[in-house]
């Protein structure tokens, strides 16, 4: 039974909700980014994401029955890449506005499409070429204005970390594509959160901060928001094709923009405004390409 297109309206609403929850997670992390070490942030974000994810799996009858695996090394690779992406993403967020750090993560589907060509032998189509060209143009107009400024070096480091996070996320999702043939979504989500928690905990010997009450709550909320965002996105993709959800990436970007303007008092850079339609356009083309590939595979069966 195909659940992907059964309830497209529900899928769209859940995608919008996931965007709001993801932005709330990013705001929580940004608010403590200058005082709390990176590994400590990753630990709280991952550990407290377990709570909503486990509750969700219990309600679906997939915990603990759905956690069995035949590909432990596949989970280790996927989770390791995902944890590294989280470290890079949060490090980028400490140096960039929320909207810019979020926009760079929208490069993930474009990099996945290109990775499918290089690593999985998938065809390099016109759509993939167009997605890559739009993404490269978006990166250029985002990054180039900062190169000549005095504060450009720190901002440039944030851009590099954001690109690295998108690249690592693409690698993690390509791994998911391979192991999902035998592994459940429940096991993939659960082991990723567990390994990310352990990766954050491993940084304890390098020193963690003594948290204030507000910092503690912000970190806990980052985990709860992150776990809930993952659930909402999972259900959105269950009810609607990724290509149908792609246009709503523009709506999802409203929340990070408002966070920068209203919470952190950060103006929108001209480079960001130019890069926004280019990068999201590339992501949309990549999503359409993914839909075409799935259709071709289903017709061959």
UniProtKB/TrEMBL annotation:
UniProt-listed SUPFAM superfamilies: Multidrug resistance efflux transporter EmrE (SSF103481)
Membrane topology summary = Multi-pass membrane protein
Compartments (UniProt record)? Membrane
Question: What residues form the membrane-spanning segments?
Answer: 12-32, 38-59, 80-98, 104-122, 129-147, 159-176, 188-209, 215-236, 248-266, 272-293
The record's keywords, sorted A to Z, are: Membrane, Transmembrane, Transmembrane helix
Q: EamA domain spans which residues?
A: 10-143, 158-285
What InterPro entries does the record tag this protein with? EamA_dom (IPR000620), EmrE-like (IPR037185)
Name listed for the protein in its UniProt record: DMT family transporter
């Amino acid at each position: 039974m195909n659940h992907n297109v059964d309830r497209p309206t529900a899928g769209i609403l859940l995608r919008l909700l996931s965007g709001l929850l993801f932005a709330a997670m990013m705001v929580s992390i940004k608010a403590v980014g200058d005082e709390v070490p990176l590994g400590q942030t990753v630990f709280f974000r991952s550990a407290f994401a377990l709570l909503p994810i486990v509750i969700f799996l219990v309600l679906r009858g997939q915990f603990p029955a759905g956690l069995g695996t035949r590909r432990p090394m596949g989970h280790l690779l996927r989770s390791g890449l995902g944890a590294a992406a989280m470290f890079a993403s949060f490090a980028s967020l400490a140096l960039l506005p929320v909207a810019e750090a979020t926009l760079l993560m929208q490069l993930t589907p474009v990099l996945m499409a290109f990775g499918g060509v290089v690593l999985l032998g998938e065809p390099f189509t016109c759509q993939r070429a167009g997605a890559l060209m739009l993404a490269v143009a978006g990166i250029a107009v985002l990054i180039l204005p900062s190169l000549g400024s005095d504060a450009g070096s720190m901002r440039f480091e944030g851009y590099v970390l954001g690109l690295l996070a998108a690249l690592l996320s693409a690698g993690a999702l390509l791994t998911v594509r391979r192991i999902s043939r035998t592994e459940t979504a429940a096991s993939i989500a659960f082991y990723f959160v567990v390994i990310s928690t352990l990766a954050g905990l491993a940084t304890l010997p390098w020193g963690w901060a003594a948290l204030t009450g507000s910092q503690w709550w912000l970190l806990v909320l980052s985990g709860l928001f992150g776990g809930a965002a993952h659930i909402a996105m999972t259900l959105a993709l269950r009810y609607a094709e990724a290509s149908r959800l792609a246009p709503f990436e523009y709506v999802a970007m409203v929340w990070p923009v408002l966070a920068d303007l209203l919470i952190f008092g950060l103006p929108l850079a001209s480079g960001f405004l130019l890069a926004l339609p280019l990068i999201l356009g590339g992501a949309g083309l990549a999503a359409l390409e993914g839909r075409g590939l799935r259709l071709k595979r289903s017709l061959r069966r």
